[in-house]
Model the fold of this input.
Amino acid sequence: MIDFENPTGSAGVSPAPMQAPGARPSLIASLAEAAGDGRVPFFRQAQRARRPHSQSGPTLLCLLALFLFVPAIHAQERPNILFILADDLGWSDLACYGNEWFETPHLDRLAQEGARFTQAYSAAPICSASRAALLTGKTTARLGFEFVTKPEAGYQPMVTPLRAPPFTLDLPLDEVTIAETLSEAGYQTVFFGKWHLNQHYQRYLGWSPTHGPKSQGFQVAEEDFGSHPYSYWKDKSKRGFLDLPEGEFVEDSMTQRAIKFLEGDHDRPFFLMVSHFYVHDPIHTRVKWLHDHYAEKIPADHPRHDVLAHYGAMVTALDHYVGQLLDALEETGVVDNTLVVFTSDNGGHPNYAGNAPLRGSKWNLYEGGVRVPFLARWPGRIEAGKINEAAVWAVDLFPTFAEIADAKLPPDRDGQSLLPVFDDPELDDTGDWREKPMIWHFPYYHPEKGYHKAPAEIGIDDGFTSQTHPHSAIRDGAWKLLYFFEDAKGELYDIGGDSVVENKEISRFYEEIADDAQAKLLDYLDETNARLPTPHPDYSEKP
Done:
């Protein structure tokens, strides 16, 4: 185990929405059934039904004994939460999301046994910012954490019209995380995998002894690259193929740590976060049979054929390791009382994922950068096999998990509980069900190396890392507006329902809606004291 943790240590105002166009039964099921409100968690129903009446004698004593025993029952009744986070997995990378090449039978099964969300979003188009927002339930604008962590403090190296804010190196310890909130509510909180929320310590992605998972509410945390190429990439002699029998995968030690935890004894509900490094680059597999399978399956004339053979193998490997976790839930007998959520930290890398039919990719706020796969399974609560078209995003997970755990939600969270969506998959696909719009803030340039040589146009499945300029975005109902700071202009798109391709900018046709969206976005950035790009002191206009 590579563990740099202590081995002995275990306000703004959100804008109002604008107008858009056109249980599983508890052990005391009788009490929950008597409450009869399907949208209230069964453990809350039981609580309400257990309120004692004024009585005397033995009956009162019995009720008092029952009342004293309620906390133990309550702790058992609250569901476990298994949260699986993929890295750089694109919205269209899974078979259940329409990918015609990559095979993902375990994630497809998860979708069949639960709900598949078609309009789910990450909180940011890049890793650290997305994870910080997810764990705190706050937008990157409110957090002041919009980019990736770095080894040292400073600014971006290139000279551009604007200068992005200085790098944020650590998730501040005074920020309240999901893990801290659930821990206070009596959950066991456990973390395995990629953290990426502190200044790199001793090596790339190394956990800080002061700002790692154990400092942010996780009682158990172990650092491990697993079988990802990070674990062997520096040793070129290990990059060759392993001639494994067909159907066999390299053991993933990170997944095995999570399974070992699941197989242990649990006297309270758990929140287990498995944060995969897959499918982040380096894009490489050592499983020869799987690589050869995709090399044959992907059209030979595809311009990215060779790298996609490796990338497809990584997607299927991720699926295999998720399947092992799902099997462990069944084998340990906790599957029926466990909510499983699977999603990605941001959209896919343009050099590999492609993201079609979505425009854009990781590093920008077009749909390809922030629309992600999102699967949820909760037997008895989420109807199996449903396709859910409600607009949801990663910062909704904090209030969702808090409500499920019957925990107190801290103030100034930007998301809202998804329990109404879990209970009613027919909610409006335009996003009108939301009380607050979704807001993204990315005041940085990208790529940091080779920026001036990168293509200026952000396209669809073109295989290029294009230039990203500082920008923010708001989605409210079916409308989505991107605001670019260099020229102080916005782009408006209608992305409700099947309108996923942002290739028709329509602000000139809907000027009032565009102005309203832009005003609400800028008001939010102002009210949250968001960090903005400023004129670069070394930049001058070319003649």
Summary: The first strand starts at residue 80 and ends at 86.
